[in-house]
Amino acid sequence: MDCVFCKIASGEIPSKKAYEDEKICAFYDLDPQAPVHILIIPKEHISSIKEITPENSGIVAHIFEVAVKLAKENHLDNGFRIVNNCGEDGGQTVQHLHIHLLGGRSMKWPPG
Ligand code: 5GP
Ligand code: ZN
After folding, report:
1. In this structure, are residues 97 and 51 in contact, taking their beta carbons and an 8 Å threshold?
2. Residue 112: which pLDDT band, with cuts at 50, 70 and 90?
3. Contact between residue 102 and residue 81 where contact means Cβ atoms under 8 Å apart
4. What is the 3-state secondary structure (H, E, C) of the chain?
5. Which residue has the CA at smallest separation from atom 18 of ligand 1?
6. Tens digits of residue pLDDT in 61-84
7. 7 CA distance to ligand 2 centroid (A)?
8. Stated pTM of the model
9. pLDDT one-digit tens code per residue, 79-111
10. Distance separating alpha carbons of residues 35 and 98, to the nearest angstrom
11. Apex CA 8: angle with CA 2 and CA 47, to 5°?
12. How many whole angstroms separate alpha carbon 3 and alpha carbon 26?
C-alpha cells in the first residue's frame, strides 16, 4: 500500500521520532503549525477515525495517553491542543489515522 505514514512507521521514510512502541509512533510534523507539532499514529494502517470500532478503540486511548506524556515532556504546561482531521471537510490530507499534538503558542477558537 502506498501510504506515507505506514512508510514512516516502518522507517522506510525517515522522520524525527518523538516516541515509539510496538503499537504506535509519534514524529514531528514536516510543516509545523506551532512551536511543538507532533503527529501520533497507530502502526497498523487505519485510514481514519471512522474505522474505529469496539474491537480497535483501545488504540485511541493509548494515543491520547502518549499525547499527554509528550505534552509534559515538551513542557506544554500552559495547555495544548489535540486535533483529528477526518475526511475532506475535516481537512484530512493523509489517509492514515493520526492526531496532531500542537502547543507552545496560544490557539484560536474556532479553527479555520
Ligand atoms: P492532516 O491534514 O491529514 O490532518 O495532516 C497530515 C499532516 O502530515 C500535515 O500536517 C503534514 O504536514 C504532515 N505530513 C505529510 N507528509 C509528511 C511526511 O512525510 N513527514 C512528516 N513528518 N509529516 C508529514
Ligand atoms: Zn498507512
Report:
1. yes
2. confident
3. yes
4. CCCHHHHHHHCCCCCCEEEECCCEEEEECCCCCCCEEEEEEECCCCCCHHHCCCCCCHHHHHHHHHHHHHHHHCCCCCCEEEECCCHHHHCCCCCCCCEEEEECCCCCCCCC
5. 30
6. 999 999 999 999 999 999 999 999
7. 7
8. 0.98
9. 999 999 999 999 999 999 999 999 999 999 999
10. 19
11. 55
12. 16
| Cβ count near 78 (within 10 Å) | 9
Place of cell 509519534: 26
* 98 is known as an active-site residue: yes
Q: Which three cell numbers stand for residue 64?
A: 491520547
Kindly give the number of the ligand 1 atom that is closest to the alpha carbon of 85.
4
Q: What nine digits make up the cell of 36?
A: 511543538
